[in-house]
Amino acid sequence: MSNVYQVQIGRRGVITLPKSLRDQKNLENGEILNLIELSDDLFVISRNRSKVDKVADELAEEWRDSGESLESMLSTLREVRADYDESQK
Amino acid sequence: MSLKNRIFLDTSTIVAAVFSETGGARKLFQLGEVEVLQLVIGPNVLRECEDVLRRRMPGSLPKLAHMLELARVETASQPPAELIEEARSIVEYRPDAYVLAEAMAAEPDWFITHDKEHFLDVRPVSRLSFRVGTPGDLIQFLEDEHLQK
What we know:
A: 89 residues, mainly alpha, B: 149 residues
């Protein structure tokens, strides 16, 4: 059985999941699902509410508030990696 | 390729996942959390994350550990000496070769990194059993595969 379903967007963006899928997965009316946008053309619908995003956002805020940037962290990573290699010689 | 790909993350990808809210690295963590991907790191990658935070943001260690846990990141075992030697014959820069050896030991489908100089510009794919790319490369691959472009 294919795990790919075609759904149509109706008025006001309403999407109806196929009945067979709703029955099989016990998806109830009113249940909230999460739509993850991966690219312009690819989306994933998940039953589990994402918590990783919230934690990552909190970390990013902590780091930025302390004056860190992606570059400063990656620069430290390069130092850490080189130091470890040196310690193994 | 099976539905649940095994994705080995370089340390740079983990740092990028924090900073880039809409970037590819963050998306990989979201997919790990909902069990579309199996994210894997090596013991050395984990140690590097800890060392970077100890130097820059020691108070963030528990939260980063929580983030890895939420994304169901698995820690693979140490690479054997033979794999380290083999990795050194593929990647010239010794410090990165150890991470490559960890990836080889984890037997992933993809090795995801932001390291242009030592991995992405070299892309020693012909000698590896997995692909090497950025988070964006993997998402493009998933899109191509699932949408049959």
